[in-house]
Amino acid sequence: MTATVPSKPSGPDEAAFRHELYPYSGDAQFLSGTLGFVHEALDDGEAVVIAVPADKTSLLRSELADEPAVTFVDTTAAGANPGRHIAAWAAWMKERGEGERPVRGIGETDWRHVRSAAHLSELRHHEWLLNRAFAQSPTWSMLCPYDAADGDEDALRALSRCHPLIRRDGRYLPNDVYLAVDDYPFDVLADPCDPYQELSYTHGDLSAIRSKVSQCAADAGVPEDRLPKLAVAVTEIATNSIRHGGGRGTLRTWAQQSTFLCEFRDAGHITDPMTGRTRPTPGQVGGRGLWLAHQLCDLVEIRSTREQGTTIRLHMDTRP
Do 18-174 and 197-317 share a fold? Predict the structure, then answer.
């Protein structure tokens, strides 16, 4: 199938990172919009990185197989945790940019198979954070296709709030529902499931914390080969509580829906929402704890305000 290439879009200032939501319905609309975006890039001498579900990859490969400037990447390599995805995109874009060469990305989440309400919430937050992460990258732009065939207007609106631009009829336009705010309005964390274990900790308690979490995780069914990863993440987060959260914190652990959770609460305040989402530099001193937690756990939820302190939840699947 060959899509009609739309005219070059008109829209907001070209000097800014462009983050566009593209609602579509059906394969024909998917191809029309994404191929239009790709051909705009190729006409301007730009590279393209495509990260979409397998069925959509097949559709696009059949149309773009002979395009050397187009690269398909495997999103599963970054894992399911949305906290890893910004670093992955930065690496993909830098590699294809070859210096100052402009790059476009096409990234679609398979929203049909989101693993839990917590994952859904964090995926939306990730989409919103992309605007901050690449705000100083004027040669980059990203199209986010979204299959709106099911007619779920609430889901579409929730995702629209994370994208400053929306693509319609081959053009990108300002999105009037975009959340142009400094503080993202997080979903409220669900209450822990009963029964849960609770333990206070302070200086000198790291060994006890690791032992407690390892035992509870094993009892909940976390595979044995994943327990050391969880122990590292737990040590990093508890250490941050002691160093930056008033010298003490509270740990809770519980299991729900094939997931083991560790929750850390302290009086600290994380001011930068990008903390833990960008790869630390080789000479960086500190700042690696949340990065490691994102790399080692299946999901990390962070809620932090000056008034209420910080809550961090680490999720580990109990499935093999």
Answer: no
Please state the domain extents for the chain.
18-174, 197-317
Distance CA 40, CA 5 (A): 8
| Residue 66 structure tokens | 């002979």
CA 68, CA 64: separation in Å to the nearest integer?
9
Topology of domain 197-317, per CATH? Heat Shock Protein 90 (3.30.565)
Q: Whole-angstrom Cα distance, residue 95 to residue 140?
A: 12
pLDDT tens for each residue of 80-111: 899 999 999 999 988 887 667 889 999 999 88
Please provide the CATH number assigned to the domain covering 18-174.
3.40.50.300
**pTM metric for this prediction:** 0.90
| Per-residue model confidence as pLDDT tens digits over 233-288 | 999 999 999 999 999 999 999 999 899 999 999 999 999 999 999 998 887 767 78
Residue-wise pLDDT tens digits, 164-205: 999 999 899 999 999 999 889 999 999 998 899 999 999 999
- Which are the contacts of 122, defined by CB distance < 8 A and separation ≥ 6? 81, 82, 83, 299, 300, 301
How far apart are alpha carbons 299 and 292 in whole angstroms?
Answer: 12
